[in-house]
Amino acid sequence: QVQLVESGGGLVQAGGSLRLSCAASGLTFSSYVMGWFRQAPGKEREFVVAINRSGARPYYADSVKGRFTISRDNAKNTVSLEMNSLKPEDTAVYYCAASAIVGYSGSYYSSRQYGYWGQGTQVTVSS
Predict the structure, then answer these.
(1) Bridge partners for 24 per DSSP
(2) If you count DSSP H runs as helices and E runs as strands, how many of each does the chain have, helices first?
(3) In the chain, which end has fewer C-beta atoms inside a 10 angstrom radius, N or C?
(4) Going by DSSP bridges, is the β-strand pair 58-60/121-126 parallel, antiparallel, or unpaired?
(5) CA distance linking residue 15 with residue 127, whole number of Å
(6) CB 97 within 8 A of CB 34
(7) Strands (E), 1-127
(8) In this model, does residue 105 exceed pLDDT 80?
């Protein structure tokens, strides 16, 4: 079965950096768009960033543009999220997600287009 396993979350001070990783198994990784979403307490899950199948084209939410960088390694079935200049408002549970249909139909930015999800990893940014 498909598994997405996130790692790398933790507690960091504002202005600091963290790197999240997501290891995928049970799917043809290069056939999937990969994305990161986050959900803060009391808020809806929101799009953070996605990357197309080849890894050549990222899509960023305005709130993280210039601070976060997504990358993928199709040989290792992994996707990573480098987060710099972290702010307290970045505090959330971060989820890795995979979509077979985005890029053919549907939006990169909609969580409904992603059929597989990881369990999430907590990122806490202190002020």
Answers:
(1) 4
(2) 0, 11
(3) N
(4) unpaired
(5) 9
(6) yes
(7) 3-7, 10-13, 18-25, 33-39, 46-51, 58-60, 68-73, 78-83, 92-99, 116-117, 121-126
(8) no
> Cβ atoms within 10 A of the Cβ of 97, count?
25
DSSP structure class, residue 66: T
Give the residue carrying structure tokens 């997501």: 22
Position 103 pLDDT exceeds 90: no
Mean of pLDDT values over 61-86 = 98
pLDDT the model gives residue 104: 79
Angle at 68 between CA 112 and CA 35, to 5 degrees: 20
User: CB of 18 within 8 A of CB of 80?
Assistant: no
**Mean of pLDDT values over 62-69:** 98
Region of residue 66 (left: phi > 0; alpha: psi -120 to 50; beta: else): left
**b/e map 82-96, b = 16+ CB within 10 Å:** ebeebeeebbbbbbb
